[in-house]
Write a structure and sequence with these properties.
Blueprint: H1 16-28, H2 35-48, E1 52-56, H3 59-69, E2 77-81, H4 86-94, E3 98-102, H5 113-119, E4 124-130, H6 139-146, E5 151-154, E6 162-163, E7 166-167, E8 174-178, E9 191-195, H7 198-207, H8 238-270, E10 276-277, E11 285-286, E12 292-295, H9 304-313, H10 330-336, H11 344-352, E13 353-356, H12 364-378
Parallel strand pairs: 2-3, 2-4, 4-5, 5-8
Antiparallel strand pairs: 1-9, 6-7, 6-11, 8-9, 10-12, 12-13
Helix pairs in contact: 1-8, 2-8, 3-4, 5-6, 8-12
This protein binds pyridoxal-5'-phosphate (PLP).
């Protein structure tokens, strides 16, 4: 019998270098408001080729502050994809505004552009888009549809993806990134907001620290400051920033590994009949290959969950992006009255897709092992 492998869906890539960087911060006694956050922000801004990067406690914080900076409030609407993490919609709710959900397309999983056009009204204050599992949204077409409405990019699963020769996160009014353990780089928990708009950067810099009007260096007398609006405590600590700096240096290498794994697995899966894959980006874009999602058509003999169980039992970790369309989560259903059938494509992806791992913790033989397993299940 063949040896059973252990293939986790995601694994943070933490080595000696990260451990040493974190130890140095702990020994320095500067745990927050220090040089590591500044250095991480500068390195991140440089990587994306944007003017400003502001380190935060999470991507959720970045989304919330993006909308706060755009003055989103009660009576306003914000366009939100239904195939996303709940954080994308929660950010709108935190502002007291209304999320207007958009169904996904089956080609890419990204939000349906025509539907975005239909849902834009005079109340639409902003459009949030998600580069679904790393596949860059068609920003040129989006701009033609949304015109002057500001676009916030949710880049939580797309760090390193490119569109038209530019990194995603540098194309909208702001970009929001996550450093949760299984994302492209990790600071345990953490996030980043990127923007070329200095006014937004200035606002976010204050709003991440209670809305305090002056930084520690700017205070003549320690502890004396004023607050003019309701900010949050969304800062990133020095420990996390030190971790993030090392991870960012490794990003290109890790993304290269993802690309190789993805292309190996994709070639093998394309040979298998009965399963459906999302299309690949055109020459104008590069995906960040967060995972490789396989969809089972309605007439597939096995349920999605049984398929997953068969993979799990031989050591293949999987996930689902995203397992429930956000408008069908109880909070949104109860508040806005959505029901099954309202977002058919998002539901199809939620119910019929399996996210296979392609992360940098895996290699070619892992991809062959996964493809062989999928092939075997499909031919049963
Ligand atoms: C993971 C994820 C988030 C949330 O990121 P946090 O850093 O955990 O707040 C937001 N949006 C998308 C699309 C995600 O996948």
């Amino acid at each position: 019998m063949k040896e059973i492998k252990k293939i986790p869906f995601g694994l943070p890539m933490i080595d000696k270098e990260e451990i040493e960087a974190v130890s140095r911060v702990l020994e320095s006694n500067i745990l927050t408001h220090g040089p590591a956050v500044k250095e991480f922000e500068e390195a991140f801004a440089h990587y994306l080729d944007v003017k400003n990067a502001i380190a935060l406690s999470s991507c959720t914080a970045a989304l919330h502050l993006s909308l706060m900076a755009l003055d989103v409030g009660p009576g306003d609407e914000v366009i939100v994809p239904s195939q996303t993490h709940v954080a994308t919609a929660h950010a709108v709710e935190y502002c007291g505004a209304k999320p207007v959900f958009i169904d996904a397309t089956l080609e890419t999983g990204n939000a349906d552009l025509d539907m975005i056009g239909e849902k834009i009204t005079s109340r639409t204050k902003a459009v949030e888009i998600v580069h679904f599992i790393g596949f860059p949204f068609d920003m040129k077409k989006l701009t033609a549809v949304v015109k002057n409405t500001p676009v916030v990019e949710d880049c939580a699963v797309a760090l390193g993806a490119e569109y038209g020769g530019k990194k995603i996160g540098s194309l909208g009014i702001s970009g929001c990134f996550s450093f949760y353990p299984i994302k492209h780089i990790s600071t345990a928990e953490g996030g980043m907001l990127t923007t070329d708009n200095d006014e937004i950067a200035h606002f976010v810099g204050k709003a991440r620290a209670f809305g305090i009007d002056r930084s520690i260096e700017e205070r003549k007398v320690p502890g004396i400051y004023d607050v003019k609006y309701l900010g949050n405590n969304y800062r990133m600590s020095e420990i996390k920033a030190a971790l993030g700096l090392v991870q960012l240096k490794k990003l290109e290498g890790m993304n290269k590994k993802r690309r190789e794994n993805y292309s190996t697995l994709r070639k093998l899966l394309e040979e298998i009949e009965g399963i459906v894959l999302f299309k690949q980006p055109d020459k104008n874009s590069t995906s960040a290959h967060f995972c490789l999602s396989v969809m089972l058509p309605e007439d597939f003999p096995l349920s999605r969950d049984d398929f997953v169980a068969k993979l799990n039992i031989i050591g293949i970790g999987t996930s689902t992006y995203y397992g429930t369309p956000v408008p069908l989560m109880s909070y949104y259903r109860n508040k806005y009255g959505y029901k099954p059938g309202d977002f058919p494509n998002a539901e199809f992806i939620a119910n019929r897709s399996i996210a296979l791992p392609v992360g940098p913790h895996l290699n070619r033989s892992d991809m062959e092992y996964i493809a062989e397993a999928v092939q075997k299940i499909c031919s049963q």
